[in-house]
């Protein structure tokens, strides 16, 4: 784990302790499912600083990929309609 991520974990642990929320640093750093559950519990908070730290940690651990909603994704582009078929025998224009 990178030094910056470890510093974020330490900061998140301190903020969680201030709010009386449990935080096992060793298990958080080694168990991804536990980290996800802990972050979900921490993000259920009114404290803005804790929310920002939790979201930053989600991003640092690569857990934000599934958070995008379909509302914000652009609609799939459809192929342009095929050109109108010309009836046989109808004059289209002169050839050069």
Automatic annotation (TrEMBL):
Domain of life according to the entry: Bacteria
Report the source organism: Pelomonas margarita
Q: Give residue spans, biased composition: Pro residues.
A: 73-85
Region annotated Disordered, chain positions: 66-96
* Designated name of the protein: XRE family transcriptional regulator
């Amino acid at each position: 784990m990178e030094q910056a991520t470890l510093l974020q974990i330490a900061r998140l642990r301190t903020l969680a302790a201030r709010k009386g929320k449990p935080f096992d640093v060793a298990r958080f750093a080694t168990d991804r499912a536990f980290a996800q559950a802990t972050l979900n519990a921490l993000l259920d908070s009114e404290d803005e600083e804790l929310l920002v730290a939790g979201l930053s940690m989600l991003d640092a651990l690569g857990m934000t990929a599934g958070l995008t909603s379909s509302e914000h994704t652009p609609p799939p582009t459809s192929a342009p309609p095929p050109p109108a078929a010309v009836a046989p025998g109808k004059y289209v224009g002169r050839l050069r």
